[in-house]
Amino acid sequence: MQKQPNRDDRSNNVERLEQMVENTEHNMQEANETMNDSELTASQKEQIKEKNQHREESIEQFKIEIQEEKAYREGNDLQ
Fold first, then answer.
1. What is the Cα–Cα distance from 62 to 60, expressed in whole angstroms?
2. What is the helix, strand, coil percentage profile of the chain, to 5?
3. pLDDT digit string (tens) for 2-11?
């Protein structure tokens, strides 16, 4: 008896991606606040800046995926 693969459930992808954007933005804000800590070294601050740059790139990709998922939803009448 072979199992059937699960159907691709995309019904909540937009909401899930929007939550990921929100969480990433929150993490960026916290990181920026941490950079005000006078005990951080220049190297640590640079690492935070780099990490936030990667987060910014991720947010842009999430937004592209959100648009794609919304288009898919509209084309397939998923609500």
1. 5
2. 70, 0, 30
3. 777 767 777 8
